[in-house]
Amino acid sequence: MKNFQLVRASSQQSAVASIAKDTEAKFIGGGTNLVDLMKKMVTTPDRLIDITGLDLKKIEALQGKTRIGALAKNTQVAEDALIKQKHPLLSLALGAGASQQIRNMATVGGNMMQRTRCSYFYNTDMPCNKRIPKSGCGAKEGYNRMHAIFGTSDSCIAVHPSDMCVALAALDATVFVEGPKGDRQIKFTDFHRLPGTTPEKDNTLERNELIVAIEIPDNNFSKNVHYLKVRDRSSYAFALVSVAAALDISGGKINAARLAMGGVAHKPWRLTDAENYLTGKPATAATFAAAAQLAMKGAKGYGDNNFKLKLVPNSIVEALTIAASK
Amino acid sequence: MAKNNTHSSHEEQQGANPGRRDFLKKSTLLTALALSPPSLMAASDNKWDEKLSEYFETVPLSLEVNGKKQTLNIEPRVTLLDLLREQLQLTGTKKGCDHGQCGACTVHVNGTRVLSCLSLAVMQQDAKVTTIEGIASGKKLHPMQEAFIKHDGFQCGYCTPGQIMSGIACISEGHANSRDEIREYMSGNICRCGAYHNIVNAIEEVKEGGQLS
Lengths: 326, 213
Description:
By secondary structure, chain A is of the alpha+beta class. Chain A is built from 13 helices and 12 strands. Chain B has helices at residues 2-34, 37-45, 48-55, 80-87, 143-150, 160-172, 179-185, 196-209, and strands at residues 59-65, 68-74, 106-109, 112-115, 128-130. A 5-stranded mixed beta sheet of chain B has the order 2-1-5-3-4, with helices on one face. In chain B, β3 and β4 (112-115) form a beta hairpin. Mean pLDDT of chain B is 84; it is low at 1-16 and 32-37. The interface between A and B is medium-sized, with 28 and 34 residues.
């Protein structure tokens, strides 16, 4: 690892001021992804700004919404009584990610900021437009079993690896950030972005902005929810595909639905067409199958990941079926 | 004799930092003097000498490891794992993958299990760290150590310190209520010998025996 300076931020304002001053600086929270990227020399910051001392760890019920501090640990959120009761989908998604050791270290903000696990991104001997703009994409015609089938571009077919973010995208969360010009809010579904011609940008956060919290609006998704994660082993592996499904059902009829997927795109992939289709329909196998077909619009395989074209609709049906049966 | 050598090299290590800093400052100054006056002005304006010496600087750190206070100077890039193994000679904690994929480096920090390979030591100021060396009471092994021996919870033993530290936490977190739950919450500790069945047996027995809260 290249050596660096470490400074401890004593306040949000000083954290934002320090990062504004130094273009080679990065914030560090749990460090579970950043330290690994630094060991691999994928990223080589001159300065780390340790934000773990900031008072951003609270989880609280506010009027009509739940607010989670950006430095709350993944374990803390997953096991929080309020989250389990009001937003069990988020708890399930967090529990499906990483291992308990990593969840004990990783923060909410850091989870959002984690980079793709595309092996071409991680291997500095390989071309990667995300790591070095305009150097090419090794994955497109290379080994691309883990890669995206939605929203890809000629520049990049990487996926965002988070489970937590898939649930937050489904639950209409909002991201609160602080920058040199003050506070701003970003819809969670607009936080991560598609690669286009600039895959080096994972998200819409400015370099000098700090994530301070996320908020989830109250909803009726406290019962019929499921996070289905399909992977190569039953635990501690990244998703081949994952589905966050939340249904509000009464009398066998779907009043509202939320669906998002992981492992299929450069960002958590919200399935709005399928949600609209499900709304007002009976919660039956035929409804779920039709919704899953709608979700496949625009899907494209790259060879090794062609199996996802079949796995995705099957997983959507499975997740909806399990959610409806709870 | 050997002890004395160790002692003096330790002192040199302690003293190395200000010396190196001085050297860097002087050498930067010499380089700066060799430059033309406008460049010299720029060097001075940008405080290059300060930046260079700061760059190589080690930082003070104090933390508690297995109940013993440690005060050291370390480079910011040193991981907690390397600090334990290479500076404190606590080699019980193992370096498996060094990338957060195997769990061999699991230790407890402030009572929580974490991966020491992905933890920067410099961020552990005032932390209370417990390693595999710190769980026995004198010559009496920790119940989890006893159970691993009894149930043959290992073959080569390389993952064992991480498995034991994780197993203790798995129970204290309240995640050892069934064999399936134990498997799920122990999934961050890989055993390539495949002793999983016996590891679950060991953890289950300690849980049922109520030796840990």
